Amino acid sequence: MAVALLVGGATKLAAAEQAVQDRLAWLRRPAAWQLRWTRPIVASPPAVAAGLVAWLDDAAVHGVRAEDGLPAWRRVPPQDTLLFPRSTVSRLGAGRPVQLGLSTVTTCGHLVYAVIEAGGLGPLVVCLDCSDTAEGRLLWSTPPPTGCVGFDGPPAADHEVCAIVTRGAGDRGPLELVVHDARDGVVIWRRPLATGMARDGVDHARGRRQATLVDGQIVIADHAGSIWAFDRSGRSAWRYEYDLPARGVKRPSGDAVSGDVGWLLPVEPVVAAPHGLVIAAQDRGGVLALDAAAGPPRLRWEVAVGERLRIVGVADGRVVLERGADAGQATLVSHDAADGRVVASGTAGPLAVGLAVMAGGVILQPIADNGAKQPRLAIAAIDAATLQRCGPPCQISSAVAGDMAAGAASSPAVSLTVSPAAVFVAGVDQLFSLGPPAP
User: Is the CATH code 2.40.128 the one for domain 6-39+320-439?
Assistant: First the structure.
């Protein structure tokens, strides 16, 4: 998921970015990374919260300690990674594979938010306290509110609110933005959006819509012609409507509504940038940047309308996009956040086996290294300013990574999550941790 932090003033923003880059300077030397631990488990893209690495399967929330990969809490067997729900029914459904990039948890400090199908009880959004004293205690859980049949993506949350998109009945069921109190899950307010079906008759982001909490507002792209913003009290701040390209959006082969595609890419939420907001609208293709600082939002720039792109991240006043990720042939392009002009381009390698992530001014890309007889997993580090490699990639032993690098053309086999002390690598049957050499 692409994330940026809005800080008042360009000087403060630059200072905050520099502080993060200093803490993550070790990312620029991937060849020196060392394996910390590994676990043979089914893992969706993980998230880090309160010293834990947490992830979802199709029925439960799991987690292990970030430092050593052992079970999160005391008095459990070494193979037990289940955090919630800890019931016989949930265990029967736990451990089945999920589609990478589509099932994610959201974290804020020691809180973990997720949408799960809990043992046949239907969809629930849950909030867990994963502090050392609480040990994964359930703070609250709630089904979709009255009139909604399900959730249409992961939550966006902090210590005050938990915002999530819900869906009404039927293929053209209306979407709603529902905001819960983060303390107890009570619905504070809910606002209708529109149908998820775009004007071309396709739901381009079904099950993958996520709001963004930025600058005192909750912003959501419906990927059906509109971008909405509300203040935290539920009052409408603005709505921006855009036109669809005349020839539609270039799509991967298969049916994106049913999920029968090679790489069904995650849908990034709206991203905050130094000069406004950046959106990769799935029904429109390309990326557009809005200036919503004062009054109604206006279009600042747009690129590659009709083409499927990903927003990797924002750093040093630049927006980095990933092209061709749905085919495993990723190219990175950097645009000036003020005017959209191209300032750099590059590629991590001949074959990407997962989506690029950005942290500390560095882009990490899992690739298949074809130098050996059999494709081997490697992690390339790329400077976010120049889009040039920082040095040799981190080569992962096949004894650790298994066949993660195989079959990359048909599915994103690997996902990466970065913390200040480690890079966590998740595949369909493996989770492991890489970090800098010990001092």
Answer: yes
Using one digit for the tens of pLDDT, what is the confidence trace for 194-227?
Answer: 888 888 888 888 888 999 999 899 999 999 999 9
- Half-sphere exposure of residue 153, counting CA atoms within 13 Å on the CB side? 29
Nearest 5 degrees, angle CA 70-CA 364-CA 322?
130
State which amino acid sits at residue 109. G
CB-based burial, 405-432: b 16+ in 10 Å, e otherwise: bbebeebbbbbbbbbeebbbbbbbebbb
Matching residue, tokens 């002390």: 421
Distances (CA, A) of 57 to 7, 73, 156: 35, 19, 19
List the structure tokens of 373.
């007889």
Closest CA to 96 of 77, 117, 113: 117
Residue 379's beta-bridge partner residues? Answer: 366, 394
CA 196 to chain centre: 20
pLDDT at 104 (0 to 100): 80
Strands of 304-411 (E only): list them: 309-315, 318-323, 331-336, 342-346, 357-359, 362-369, 376-383, 394-395
Give the integer Cα–Cα distance in Å for 47 and 293. Answer: 31
Domain boundaries, the chain: 6-39+320-439
Whether residue 32 has pLDDT greater than 90: yes
Cα gap 37→55, rounded to integer Å: 16
- Please name which of 24, 8, 30 lies closest in space to residue 313, comparing C-alpha atoms: 24
What is the per-residue pLDDT across 355-371, written as a single tens digit (0 to 9) for each?
A: 899 999 999 999 887 66
**Residue 135 corresponds to which tokens in the numbers above?**
């040990």
Residue 225: closest CA among 253, 194, 270, 268: 194
Residue range 66-93: average pLDDT? 75
Instruction: Please give the helix or strand (H or E) that residue 205 lies within, else none.
Output: none
Closest CA to 285 of 335, 334, 321, 239: 321
- SS3 of residue 260 by DSSP: strand
Mean pLDDT along residues 74-92: 71
